[in-house]
């Protein structure tokens, strides 16, 4: 058993490890000791000359363009503190939209619309249809489509009856109803 | 007592003077009248000029100087300072080059304050104030500071590192007369914090604090101790707490200190009960003297209104930790008509900046920071139109720091037409080498417009796709420029040469990732002696050229970095290799070596060349 274990140590597992960077350089551990890493540093003459510099200090080409050391010039305490956490204000309010007869559903972000007008326009565009005029008395007239939504309680409601703010906070999914079902 | 009988003595030839020059006897006492007059001088520049007039004035000046300012801690040795200035009570010391803020300077570069403190303890036991920027400050140094200077009053640490709360404990425990403890912009993430109890180390009868800023410390503090401290310090005018302080705690602090002029809040995120909201609101409304407001970590829009009542007298609002959107930002701004300085995150977007333009007619300084600097999503943040909107509404704007992802030459030209008085113009187009996104041309004309129009320009940071033309413009027009920062710009040596030849007041030049090489470097030999420092990294400078530079300019310290700082004259085996980074600065042979050995060489200030004692 022991023989096998010591043999394992000779396998140089590190060599087969997948990582970024040219062979022969170690993954840098501490951010603060990095030297500037960019295209100029790849000059092979330079790498030769650095033979007695610390191995960890030689930086290979950055994994992606955005990983240039020290750029943009923003202080590190700003980067750490200000991770824009996804507050409620920032995440979208995505709801599913189904249309009767359509093979798959769509999704829209209710947050980006300012009111019913915009929402209905967007739905018309998305599904290539016209929805018609809303009236409190008669729902949507002039078209075979009517927009409905499922609210928090699971009930199917007609879009447009409640104030917009209340609508976007209670709407769980949208459904575009068609034909005889659409008329109340 | 030496008197100066000849008031018309020529300023150009100090060696022409009369008996005063020939009397080598070390009579250190200056002329009574001269001394009195000079003691009114506060500005360092004035004092330097005065000291160059003649030996008498040099002596009178050195005996009346109480404030010491050293912009580069390696430009002069502590011994020389101690010999020249016997009466110092206040010291400002700056250490690492600015690019160390962005991880471009090795961790162990130096700038340790300790050997300075050791000298101060011997020569200036009456030291009262110490202000450090980008220096390494160990706990041992803080302990020395706390115990060796009985009259010590004010400590300010900006962008310093190397200490922990143990060092702060020493300060709190021993500095009986402390009026100011100001810790700014410290990246504490590497520092072990052992206890929030350092605040409890202020004695129970201690009440002299006027300034307390621990906003950048990461750790919890003992809130009871803080509250008691605040209630004892009746003269407290600046209080900036850290994120560990919650809203209900903030409210209690405000009750103790309604006289505050500068407030840094803690975290603004706590779920408040309805009663608490009202309490907080009224606590803020009692703060009638508030001029500066900062902190506001994780603030959400529903809590912003508690601030409104305190904003009427605000002149400086720092929202750079608060990811606000344009709507709530605009509402807040409506309550801040007297703003002079505003720092925000680009989450407010162009719409938010339009609100700035319309709500803040007195604005002088604007800084827009990127909330997410590595975000590749090209549509977030602010654009050129936000900047234009601000300039249109804020004619007094003279300081701007603006991070964006797109810009046009036309927009910048418009901006400086609205605001021709820029003294500080720092534009960072975050994608390196990005051209004018509408015309696809370089951004040369943008910066050309800036330097042509803004004759008072002192500081400039350029970005975007830039050819040598930008630097031709700078050299030709920017006659008051003192600080220039360049990254990923220029086409050839010619660009850098233009700047070195054309900008008479240039003091600090920092360059990274530009195609400037040896010819450019060597074109500025005499120039470097008048500058505080030059930094070049990832350019085309080779070791041979730097060796030549060091040989020809013995009064310059030339230092190369490739992981370990060491002086170039030791690199005999490295020829014609690109140097990853280079820093040079003028100074005496106060040569910087590992271990901070002090200079044993000559004893005169570089800048007072003609006052050498030899």
From TrEMBL, chain A:
Compositionally skewed regions (Basic and acidic residues) per UniProt: 45-57
Keyword Translocase: no
Chain positions covered by the region annotation Disordered: 21-59
Subunit structure as annotated in this protein's UniProt entry: Homodimers and heterodimers.
Keyword terms of this UniProt record: Auxin signaling pathway, Nucleus, Repressor, Transcription, Transcription regulation
Organism taxonomic ancestry: Eukaryota, Viridiplantae, Streptophyta, Embryophyta, Tracheophyta
Residues that span the membrane, as ranges: none
Species whose genome carries this gene: Fraxinus pennsylvanica
Protein name listed in UniProt: Auxin-responsive protein
Main location: nucleus
UniProtKB/TrEMBL annotation, chain B:
Alphabetically ordered keywords of this record: Auxin signaling pathway
Bias (Polar residues) ranges: 1-26
Coiled coil ranges: none
Record domain F-box: where: 29-70
GO annotations of cellular component type: SCF ubiquitin ligase complex
One Pfam family matching this protein: F-box_5
Highest rank taxon of the organism: Eukaryota
Biological processes per GO annotation: auxin-activated signaling pathway; SCF-dependent proteasomal ubiquitin-dependent protein catabolic process
UniProt region (Disordered), positions on chain: 1-30
PANTHER family xref list: F-BOX/TPR REPEAT PROTEIN POF3, S-PHASE KINASE-ASSOCIATED PROTEIN 2, ISOFORM A
Full protein name: F-box domain-containing protein
Organism: Fraxinus pennsylvanica
């Amino acid at each position: 058993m022991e023989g096998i274990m010591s043999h394992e140590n000779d396998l140089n597992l590190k060599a087969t490890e997948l990582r970024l960077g040219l062979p022969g350089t170690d993954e840098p551990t501490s951010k603060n000791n990095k030297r500037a890493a960019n295209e100029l540093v790849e000059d092979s003459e330079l790498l030769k000359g650095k033979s007695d510099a610390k191995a960890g200090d030689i930086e290979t080409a950055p994994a992606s363009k955005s990983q240039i050391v020290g750029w943009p010039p923003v202080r590190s305490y700003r980067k750490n503190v200000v991770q824009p956490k996804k507050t409620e204000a920032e995440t979208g309010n995505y709801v599913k939209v189904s249309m009767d007869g359509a093979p798959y559903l769509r999704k829209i972000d209710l947050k980006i619309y300012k009111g019913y007008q915009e929402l209905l326009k967007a739905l018309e565009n998305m599904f290539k249809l016209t929805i018609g005029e809303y009236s409190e008395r008669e729902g949507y007239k002039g078209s075979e489509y009517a927009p409905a939504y499922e609210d928090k309680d699971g009930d199917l409601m007609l879009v447009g009856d409640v104030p917009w703010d209340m609508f976007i906070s209670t709407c769980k999914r949208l459904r575009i109803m068609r034909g005889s079902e659409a008329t109340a | 007592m030496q008197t100066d009988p000849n008031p018309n003595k020529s300023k150009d030839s100090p060696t022409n003077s009369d008996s005063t020059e020939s009397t080598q006897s070390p009579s250190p006492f200056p002329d009574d009248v001269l001394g009195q007059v000079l003691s009114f001088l506060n500005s360092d520049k004035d004092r330097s000029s005065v000291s160059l007039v003649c030996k008498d004035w040099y002596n009178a000046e050195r005996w009346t100087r109480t404030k010491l300012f050293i912009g580069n801690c390696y430009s002069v040795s502590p011994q020389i300072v101690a010999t020249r200035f016997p009466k110092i009570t206040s010291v400002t010391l700056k250490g690492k080059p600015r690019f160390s803020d962005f991880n471009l300077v090795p961790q162990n570069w130096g700038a340790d304050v300790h050997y300075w403190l050791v000298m101060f303890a011997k020569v200036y036991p009456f030291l009262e104030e110490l202000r450090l920027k980008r220096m390494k400050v160990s706990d041992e140094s803080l302990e020395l500071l706390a115990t060796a200077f009985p009259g010590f009053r004010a400590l300010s640490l900006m962008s310093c590192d190397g200490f922990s709360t143990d060092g702060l404990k020493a300060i709190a425990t021993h500095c009986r007369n402390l009026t100011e403890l100001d810790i700014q912009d410290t990246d504490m993430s590497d520092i072990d914090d052992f206890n929030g109890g350092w605040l409890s180390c202020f004695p129970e009868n201690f009440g002299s604090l006027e300034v307390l800023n621990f906003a950048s410390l990461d750790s919890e503090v003992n809130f009871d101790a803080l509250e008691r401290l605040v209630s004892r310090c009746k003269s407290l005018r600046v209080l900036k707490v850290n994120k560990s302080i919650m809203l209900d705690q903030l409210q209690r602090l405000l009750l103790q200190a309604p006289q505050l002029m500068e407030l840094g809040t803690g975290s603004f995120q706590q779920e408040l009960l309805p009663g608490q909201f009202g309490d907080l609101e009224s606590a803020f409304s009692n703060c009638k003297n508030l001029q500066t407001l900062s902190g506001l970590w994780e603030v959400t829009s529903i809590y912003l209104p508690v601030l409104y009542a305190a904003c009427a007298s605000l002149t400086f609002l720092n929202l750079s930790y608060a990811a606000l959107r344009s709507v709530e930002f605009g509402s807040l701004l409506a309550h801040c008509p007297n703003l002079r300085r505003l720092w925000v995150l680009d989450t407010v977007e162009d719409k938010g900046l339009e609100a700035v333009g319309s709500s803040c007619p007195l604005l002088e300084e604007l800084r827009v920071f990127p909330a997410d600097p590595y975000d590749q999503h090209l549509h977030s943040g602010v654009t050129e139109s936000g900047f234009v909107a601000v300039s249109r509404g804020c004619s007094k704007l003279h300081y701007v720091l603006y991070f964006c992802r797109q810009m046009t030459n036309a927009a910048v030209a418009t901006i400086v037409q609205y605001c021709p008085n820029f003294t500080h113009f720092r534009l960072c187009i975050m994608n390196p080498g990005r051209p004018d996104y509408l015309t696809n041309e370089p951004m040369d004309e943008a910066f050309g417009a800036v330097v042509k129009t803004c004759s008072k320009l002192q500081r400039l940071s350029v970005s975007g796709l830039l050819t040598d033309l930008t630097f031709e413009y700078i050299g030709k027009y920017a006659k008051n420029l003192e600080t220039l920062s360049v990254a990923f710009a220029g086409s050839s040596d010619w660009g850098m040469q233009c700047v070195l030849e054309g900008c008479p007041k240039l003091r600090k030049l920092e360059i990274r990732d530009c195609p400037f090489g040896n010819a450019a470097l060597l074109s500025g030999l005499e120039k470097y002696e008048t500058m505080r420092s030059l930094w070049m990294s990832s350019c085309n400078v080779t070791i041979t050229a730097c060796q030549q530079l060091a040989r020809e300019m013995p009064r310059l310290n030339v230092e190369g970095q490739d992981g370990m700082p060491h002086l170039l004259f030791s690199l005999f085996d490295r020829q014609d290799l690109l140097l990853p980074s280079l820093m040079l600065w003028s100074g005496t042979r106060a040569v910087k070596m590992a271990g901070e050995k002090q200079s044993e060489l000559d004893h005169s200030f570089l800048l007072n060349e003609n006052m050498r004692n030899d």
